[in-house]
Every structure is written in C-alpha cells, then in structure tokens.
Design goal:
Shape: globular
CATH class: Alpha Beta
CATH superfamily: Spore Coat Polysaccharide Biosynthesis Protein SpsA, Chain A
Mean pLDDT: 91
CATH architecture: Alpha-Beta Complex
Radius of gyration: 16 Å
Number of helices: 7
Helix content: 25-40%
CATH topology: Spore Coat Polysaccharide Biosynthesis Protein SpsA, Chain A
Strand order of the largest sheet: 5-4-1-6-8-7-9
Number of strands: 9
Largest sheet: 7 strands, mixed
Order of helices and strands: EEEHEEHEHEEHHEHH
Length: 202
C-alpha cells in the first residue's frame, strides 16, 4: 500500500508550560520515541510543526521531512490538512507527536485493514481518535471544508467510508490501552515516565 506517516508536533504545550516533545521518557525525547516507532515501517515520515516551533534535529533520519503548518490557528484539523496536502502518498497514518506508547502491532493492523476505506480509526463513546488514524486522499476536501466552516472532525466520518476499530480488536494488540495516551500536563508526564520505567524493569 502507498502509505506515508504524519506526525503532528505543532501543539503549544500551554498546560505543560514548555516544549513537551523534548521531554525525555525512558531514554528518548518524546518526539524521538514517536519517530522511532514509525521509522520501523516503510514509507516517508512528515512532521508538521507550528509556525514558530523550533525545528528538531532529524539529520540522521533520511525518511523524515519537516513542514510548517499551512493553517495557523486552525488546530489539529489544520495540521492534518497540511500533512495530507503535502504528502506524496495516497494514504497516511496520522499520529500526535506527544504519544509515548504507540503500539507497532496495532498501527500495522490499522494499515492492513485500510484498503477500500477512507478512514480507519478507533471510536470511543462520543468521537473517534483523529490523531491515531489512517486517512485517504478522499478525506482532504472534506477536512478542508470542515476546517473552513469550523465544524467538528466527527463530520468527516459521516461523509467518507469508515472502518472503526472495535474494543475487542484494540485489546488484542494493546490490552493496557496505552496507545492513545498523550502528554498534556506535568501529571501526564509523570505517569508516562512511571509506565516507561515499569516496562523497562519487566
């Protein structure tokens, strides 16, 4: 499958008070942890940065491209539209740059069931997880419209072909349900470091 990988790393880290992508969890900065998981797959990685975010050093990773958010102030949807617009691939796996526990097996499963679908995502009770999902190019015009009209991203799922991951499927790969955990606060960072330490000690 013609698939690329997009990391949204444009958040302002307001609740943490500093650049969270540089925070070390285990033996790597947070963004490096995310990149290292995606680097295990074939395909190009695109990192979408906010307007004024410092550029991370990815010189040792030839598959990584860094781009600036084309739609400042449009939040997550603007970042996704930017990544999809600048990608050379028909499908893209989109993740957040603050997810320290991405599960390679689960990500591969998302990719494996993508063919024939425009969106593959896990859905909870009220919404789907937009920053741990696979998008086809068919999503781009719909997302652009959603962004322009300031609609909720769940509108996308009503207008493209969707394959939702069930809880049973999720648990098969990620029984502790850590894939969607992200860092927003100092408390989140502390939890992530404790989990990482526990995993290392196993």
């Amino acid at each position: 499958m013609d698939i690329g990988y997009i990391i949204l790393a444009g958040g302002q880290s307001k609740r943490l008070g500093r650049d969270k992508t540089k925070e070390v969890i285990g033996d790597k900065p947070l963004l490096a942890r995310v990149i290292s998981v995606l680097a295990g797959f074939e395909g190009e990685i695109t990192i979408v940065l906010a307007e004024n975010s410092p550029v991370p050093d990815v010189s040792e990773l030839p598959k990584v491209n860094i781009v600036r958010d084309l739609f400042p102030g449009k939040g997550m949807i603007g970042g996704i539209v930017t990544g999809l617009s600048l990608s050379n691939h028909d499908y893209n796996l989109v993740v957040a740059g603050d997810m320290p526990f991405l599960n390679p097996g689960l990500l591969k499963y998302f990719i494996d069931i993508t063919d024939g679908n425009d969106l593959v995502a896990y859905r909870n009770q009220s919404n789907f997880e937009p920053l741990h999902a696979v998008y086809s190019r068919n999503c781009l015009p719909v997302l652009a419209e959603i962004m322009q009209k300031n609609l909720r991203i769940i509108e996308l799922a009503q207008r493209v072909k969707v394959r939702y991951i069930t809880d049973e499927e999720l648990i098969r790969f990620d029984p502790d349900n850590r894939s969607f955990f992200n860092i927003n606060t100092p408390a989140d960072l502390e939890i992530a470091r404790k989990i990482s330490k526990q995993e290392t000690e196993k």
